[in-house]
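Weekly structure sync, notes
Attendees: PL (lead), two postdocs, one rotation student
Agenda item 3: pending single-chain targets
PL asked that the sequence for the first pending target be pasted directly into the notes so everyone works from the same version. It is reproduced below exactly as submitted, 206 residues in total.
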Amino acid sequence: MSDTALVLLNKPFRVLTQFTSTDGKATLRDFITAPGMRPAGRLDYDSEGLTLLTNSGALQSRLADPRWKSPKTYLVQVEGQATNQALDPLRRGVQLNDGLTLPAEAAVIDEPRWLWPREPPVRFRKEIPTSWISVTIREGRNRQVRRMTAAVSLPTLRLIRWSVGPWTLDGLAPGEWRVVDRAEVLAFMGGRESPDYTKKKQTNRE
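Predicted structure, written out during the meeting:
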């Protein structure tokens, strides 16, 4: 794993986005051994989906730093009947307790056919319908998507991160991971070697 620049992992529900735990909760270590790799951004314990791991500080910053505005798309099951009109505030920006959000891309979608069952399953209230929406943001506030949907009276029941930048969950079952081709990483970084790669090359030659 020492030569890996980027790994994509489908983080299951109720797994910490870190490699250690002091209270017995599941961590990334239960699914992958990756010395020197660090998560590029966080995904909540009670959220699922795409988690990126890298051994490159420059790449980690590029992926996680809000200044780069890498788009992140989430598939969200919400309580209530989602409509385009209800999602309009998300597209304009909604006021949260830590300020106004940037405009998001939001759309009503069908429940994904490829979706895996969640364990434990979502608890439903029989008298209240549920809907699926997609939300794309370019920020990284704490539990931002959940707070955004709550602000428009569509509480989040299930949240799955589908993509970060150009990478998606496609082909990854919960707990599975894959190594990203180095050419893909260089293309994302603008075709240049990151400082981490250059330093590694120099160290290997010494």
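Discussion points:
- The chain has two domains: 1-67+166-206, 71-164.
- The first helix runs from residue 57 to 64.
Action: rotation student to compare against the earlier draft before next sync.
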